[in-house]
Write a structure and sequence with these properties.
Length: 234
């Protein structure tokens, strides 16, 4: 049995022009969590650290992912290739079944070995589009991860709150996969939202912990709180 300690944080356009004070504050949070891996979204393609992962080809204008290990070294992510499933198609969502057309950002992937895989996604900002993309991923991951690699963790900025995602018309019980935080993670103009959380396989879901970390919006310059996850894999 292995418990993976994971950090995720939407860094709100961290790039080459980000001031040194904000960079130092972000790095302090990363070091203090003790995470095995720290994942990020909303890096610009010009970011110097972490190394940006371009999930939509070589387009320099896209917002990117990043990952560092417990030694603060950048980790290369792989490209996830989700496919439509009957469970997703049962919802009859508009827009088709091509994931690349539904999602304006791709899927990042980090295989851990031992049948375990972590995915990172920054879903579209619109609630209806986010529901489609997250339903697609949940259905695909549930079908894709069989007996030989059954354990998966999907984390990111889902741009849809857990109770809204649970109401998906797709043929999947989201309550068996969602692990959310106890407090909102997105600092909204009028209302804070639960946008950053995780989906897991059914085996590891009961033993997965997820909650937000405290941080200073002034110093860190993000409208999202980081989340900390403990994911125990048999």
């Amino acid at each position: 049995m292995k418990t993976w300690k994971i950090l995720f944080w939407n860094l709100r356009r961290l790039g080459l022009g980000t001031d040194d004070e904000r960079k130092a504050a972000i790095q302090t949070v990363i070091k203090n969590t003790g995470a095995h891996y720290s994942f990020f979204c909303e890096l610009t393609s010009a970011a110097a650290y972490p190394t940006p992962f371009l999930s939509k080809g070589l387009n320099p204008h896209q917002l990117c992912y990043g990952c560092v290990d417990d030694k603060a070294a950048s980790v290369d992510l792989k490209q996830g290739q989700p496919l439509a499933t009957p469970e997703f198609e049962a919802a009859n969502f508009k827009g088709g079944t091509n994931f690349a057309k539904l999602a304006n950002r791709g899927l990042g992937m980090l295989p851990l070995g031992g049948g375990a895989t972590i995915y990172i996604i920054h879903a579209p900002a619109a609630n209806s589009a986010a529901r489609k993309v997250m339903s697609y991923l949940a259905c695909w991951a549930d079908a894709h991860h069989g007996a030989h690699n059954p354990y998966y963790l999907i984390l990111g900025d889902f741009n849809i709150e857990p109770e809204d995602l649970e109401m998906t018309p797709a043929d999947i019980d989201m309550t068996a996969h969602i692990v959310s935080t106890s407090e909102p993670t997105y600092i909204g103009r009028n209302e804070d939202k639960f946008y950053d959380y995780v989906l897991t396989d059914r085996h590891t879901n009961p033993n997965t912990f997820c909650d937000r970390l405290r941080k200073s919006p002034r110093l860190h310059g993000s409208d999202h709180y980081p989340i900390y996850v403990e994911w125990t894999v048999p």
